[in-house]
Design brief:
FAD/NAD(P)-binding domain; 10 helices; disordered N terminus; 20 strands
């Protein structure tokens, strides 16, 4: 990418949530930005997710919170139901104001569309089907060689390419990927009328729950403990998930029937990663899951990735020297992200021991941490 009108230039690896949010945050500040994405155009991994209050706050800084609220399902309460059908409630902080929901459930393709549309509106170039092959740090700018045989010389390289980040390895910042003995199942289903917030069910079997993502749709999740990370044939997914849900109260029985009829079911391992070394090297940096991937139980991965993009853009605007900006960025982000990752590891271990009630205060404390200013 050539520099246009003396704008600083950035190449971002990964067109996921973190990559697209970072691209918009930089482009809004005058950067010339290109994203390279190994996946094909229009391919979006995942069924649905929860945008917590910190996610919405960060998206609000990009001018996108209202679009996400309109496209998803607003919620403010997590209801935890124990085996005896007793309920505990977590009221989440409404960071967008008292008259707006604390969080929103949204289909991942909808969120991706909103982020991609904004990036393109800001003239971000998105190149699909290619990735980073090599990184050559020169004086000042960084030379990035791509898998299609072309190269870019840019002021900044951002690795937003997920837990198995190529950029992270190329800049010498490896992080072990830990598997925690759990597999998470998700199935798209019609939304029951009683599902107006996240509802989780804890029993002698597996933990499960439901998350609304629109007025008509939701996804059911199930955490399978003491599980082998093997592959289940697609044709068997719905039946296997139904069987794992097992007997339960009326609401569990209802979502069990919905899962049995679902044609959209996925099963993914619970994994975490955390870069202990500095996240940057020269003019290159990793963000989001490439630097700090919590387990999905915290529902905070998206928030952390979007926050990363905003803070990175802020520090780059405040520093003339890229290296100093990256040091300041990591200094602001490391502790917050490490607490979330490490707490998610503790929660996964407690769930393996069927100590679900012990996870509730940990989850609540992390929501409080995330509610604090970035």
């Amino acid at each position: 990418m050539s520099t246009i009108d003396h704008a600083r230039s950035a190449l971002i690896a990964g067109a996921g949530i973190g990559g697209l949010a970072t691209a918009s945050a930089l482009a809004q500040r005058g950067w010339a930005v290109e994203i390279v994405e190994i996946g094909a155009a229009g391919s979006t991994a995942g069924w649905g997710l929860t945008l917590s209050g910190p996610s919405l706050r960060a998206l609000g800084s990009l001018g996108l919170a209202d679009r996400c609220l309109s496209a998803g399902f607003g919620m403010s309460v997590i209801t935890n139901v124990d085996a005896d059908d007793s309920e505990g409630r977590i009221d989440l902080p409404r960071l967008m104001g008292p008259d707006r929901p604390a969080m929103v459930g949204i289909a991942r393709p909808e969120l991706h569309r909103i982020l991609l549309d904004e990036a393109r509106r800001l003239d971000v170039v998105v190149s699909n089907g290619i990735s980073v092959a090599a990184v050559r740090q020169e004086t000042g700018p960084v030379r990035v060689e791509l898998t299609d045989g072309t190269a870019r010389v840019v002021d900044l390289l951002v690795g937003a390419d997920g837990i198995r980040s190529v950029v992270r390895d190329l800049i010498g910042r490896p992080a072990p990927i830990r598997y925690h003995g759990q597999m998470v199942w998700r199935a798209l289903v019609p939304r029951p009328g009683w599902a107006t917030g996240i509802v989780t069910f804890f029993g002698a079997g597996q933990q499960c729950g439901i998350v609304p993502i629109s007025s008509s749709g939701a996804y059911v999740f199930l955490v399978e403990s003491k599980a082998e990370p093997d592959v289940v044939p697609d044709a068997e997914l719905a039946g296997r998930m139904r069987d794992l849900l097992g007997p339960g109260p009326d609401r569990v029985a209802e979502i069990r029937r919905l899962v049995a009829r679902s044609t959209s079911v996925v099963r993914r391992p619970v994994q975490t990663a955390l870069v202990d070394a500095p996240w940057s090297r020269g003019s290159s940096v990793v963000i989001g899951d490439a630097a700090h991937a919590p387990s999905p139980q915290m529902a905070s991965g998206a928030a952390l990735a979007i926050e990363d993009g905003l803070v990175l853009a802020e520090e780059l605007a405040d520093h003339d020297d890229t290296g100093s900006a990256l040091d300041a960025f990591v200094g602001r982000r490391r502790e917050r992200c490490a607490v979330l990752v490490n707490t998610s590891v503790t929660i996964a271990a407690l769930e393996q021991q069927q100590r679900h009630r012990d996870t509730h205060p940990l989850i609540a404390s992390c929501h409080e941490l995330m509610a604090s200013p970035v």
